Amino acid sequence: MKFTAVITTAFLFTSAVFAHPSPDADYEANYSLISRAIGSSCKAPEGTGKCGKASTCGGITYNNLCPNDPADVKCCLELTCKPSSGGSGLCRSKSRNGCSGGTFVAGACPGSADIACCVKGGSTSPNPPSTGPKIPANKCKSYVIDNGYKILKQFPGLVHTVWCYANKPGEHGKGRALDFMVKPHAAGGRTLAEWTMKNHKSLNVMYVIWEQRIWNPSRDKQGPWTGWRKMENRGSCTANHCDHVHVSFN
Ligand SMILES: [Zn+2]
User: Fold this and answer.
1) Structural domain spans, the chain
2) DSSP3 helix / strand / coil % (the chain, rounded to 5)
3) Could you report the per-residue pLDDT of 161-209, keeping only the tens digit for each?
4) How far apart are CA 175 and CA 214, in angstroms?
5) Ligand 1 center to residue 72 CA distance, Å?
6) 137 C-alpha vs ligand 1 centroid, how far in Å?
7) What pTM was estimated for this model as a whole?
8) Name one Pfam family in it (predicted).
9) 24 CA distance to ligand 1 centroid (A)?
10) Could you say which of 94, 112, 167, 222 is the most buried, measured as most Cβ atoms within 10 Å of its Cβ?
């Protein structure tokens, strides 16, 4: 009898340690899966974030910190940053997140050099060139002004004025469009328009209009202005964009 008791004890002990998890253990496993779902916290190197859809994360995403969730659920850490050069934004990873529609500014976020402050819009005033027209800084988003000066720099003397209206419909009203005013039918207008098309990626261009023709990277292939989509006659030189190149930015 004593021997049987020893065997039974050993069997019970072994079962407890090595057997298939009990229903309670399964529950625990499921619970931990649920507890790491969207909205639960996650510990990232730069602070405590939240597991969520990567596409809705405005800040830094980290891989493998929400391991039981679908692949598109990542640890998201949203840290606001205020670069000394002005404006504010969210820290983002250059390699994983990018800064679409904005500009990375170094030195305002914790962590490695891959983490930088992504500044969009706001009132940061980029350094205007000493010569040439000025872009009205109070009405346009800062990345639009930045990119506007990049275009201006290529064509010294061509553009006499740049407009950015806040009180107009469409992209102008959103501070995302610039009108580069040139002499009516100036040959340089086409050159500026085509250059902007070629550099649309780095400039974040939504569309370009010159002399009743429009080019939009999401619809049109790159090519000479003569092959751009024709627009309706709007009645006047200015309305037909014969004296200015219109550029909208994303
Ligand atoms: Zn315009």
Assistant:
1) 41-120, 142-249
2) 25, 25, 50
3) 999 877 778 899 888 999 999 999 999 999 999 999 999 999 999 999 9
4) 20
5) 38
6) 16
7) 0.53
8) VldE
9) 66
10) 94
Cα→Cα distances 88→79, 104, 123, 240, Å: 11, 11, 9, 38
Q: Which residues of 154-180 are buried (b: 16+ CB within 10 A; e: fewer)?
A: ebeebbeebbbbeeeeebbebbbbbbb
Alpha-carbon span 130 to 154, nearest angstrom: 14
Whole-number Å distance, alpha carbon 164 to ligand 1 midpoint, is 8
Centroid of ligand 1 to alpha carbon of 247 (angstroms): 7
Distance 221 CA to ligand 1 centre (A): 22
Query: Which strand (E) or helix (H) includes residue 105?
Result: strand 103-105
Question: How much distance in Å is there from the Cα of 178 to the middle of ligand 1?
Answer: 6
Q: Which residue has the tokens 């000493």?
A: 130
- Best CA proximity match to 64, nearest among 101, 84, 36, 90: 36
Cα distance between residue 235 and residue 175, in whole Å: 25
The mean predicted confidence, pLDDT, of the chain is: 83
How far does the centroid of ligand 1 lie from the alpha carbon of residue 138, in Å?
Answer: 17
Q: How far, in Å, from the CA of 161 to the mean position of ligand 1? A: 12
Ligand 1: centre distance to CA 168 (Å): 9
| Closest-CA residue to 203 (of 133, 250, 156) | 250
The DSSP 8-state label assigned to residue 133 in this structure reads P
- Residue 161 identity (one-letter amino acid): T
